[in-house]
Amino acid sequence: MRTIDLRSDTVTQPTPEMRRAMAEAEVGDDVYGEDPTVNRLEAVAAARLGKEAAAFVASGTMANLTSALTHCQRGDEMLVGDRAHVFLNEVGAVSALGGIHVRTVRNTPRGMLDPEEAEAAVRRPGIHQPRTALVCLENTHNWCGGAVLDTEDTAAIAQVAQRHGAALHIDGARIFNAAVALKVPAAELARAADTVSFCLSKGLSCPVGSLVCGTRETIARVRKHRKMVGGGMRQAGILAAAGLVALDTMVDRLAEDHANARRLALGLARLQGLALDGDSVQTNIVAFEVVAMRAEEFMAQLKERGVLTSYLGGRRVRMVTHYGIVAVDIDEALTVVEAVVRQRDGRRG
């Protein structure tokens, strides 16, 4: 039985071109700044995001952690959305390792922070309160179904941060998905941010790695914090080589993932027993509610038939399209979902 893996775009396999580039990569010791392939990747990444410099790190979690450590001192506070990945899915690293207090602001259904609510959450100077040193946005927003923030959204929150002397970090794990969906350069979406990170190992299909981009001074501090948390890599050009191929060949093809996600969402929306607005899907993440049965039971039955999904809690389930998933896989997955839902309805009857 063939498996259709829709759990995440992290399950992607590197392309043949990536494998060749990795095998042939020119390498050196990156901790000494001597790996030429890493250096090229960082320069290309910084240019693509419109920043002065970039640092190659092992993961998206490390990217967010080193950015937070760079902007905040121990005892400072950062504002994040209440459904943010850095809050829900990164093991409380900024608090456990950085001594940073996290305060949440409500995420709207489209992953935005309401500027007035963010403004109200900023701490006023005083001996009884931590300093609000950082505001964090997420684009696209994982827990909000791959929702996209545009330039105006980011600028509105950047203005709040600037008024209070705080920095703005964008967790842009999938920022290239946002750029493709909006048909704008990623640099435009990152312009107002002091730091922005993005993942190579999600929709861009690399085996490992993320980048943090910002000013030269800021990225120098990110590098020090990367070393502090054990992220200093040596001949990392073998990994960086795949990133160079990804930025050259894999960004524009994200539109295929978006088209497949819309195909999937519209198909799911037609099925009784599931709840979602098929037209609301903007990128490659399809989140929906299972109302016909327990979500865990629904997922288990799909798995038995070769379709893998992710659990979002309660009745919510997630499917993610990516490199390696094509339209015929979407149609096959929909056939399996329909069979599971109808079987449940038959039992009820």
Q: In CATH terms, what is the architecture of the largest domain? A: 3-Layer(aba) Sandwich
Q: State the fourth-level CATH superfamily of the largest domain.
A: Type I PLP-dependent aspartate aminotransferase-like (Major domain)
* Class from helix and strand fractions: alpha/beta
Shape: globular
Strand order, sheet with most strands:
2-8-7-6-5-3-4
Describe this structure in words.
The chain has 349 residues and is an alpha/beta fold. It folds into 2 domains: 12-249, Type I PLP-dependent aspartate aminotransferase-like (Major domain) (Aspartate Aminotransferase, domain 2); 253-348, Alpha-Beta Complex (Aspartate Aminotransferase, domain 1), CATH 3.90.1150.10. The protein is 43% helix and 17% strand. The chain is built from 14 helices and 13 strands. Helix 2 (36-48) packs parallel to helix 11 (237-249), helix 3 crosses helix 10 (216-228) and helix 12 runs parallel beside helix 14.
Keywords:
single chain, alpha/beta, Aspartate Aminotransferase, domain 2, Aspartate Aminotransferase, domain 1, 2 domains, 7-stranded mixed beta sheet, 4-stranded antiparallel beta sheet, 14 helices
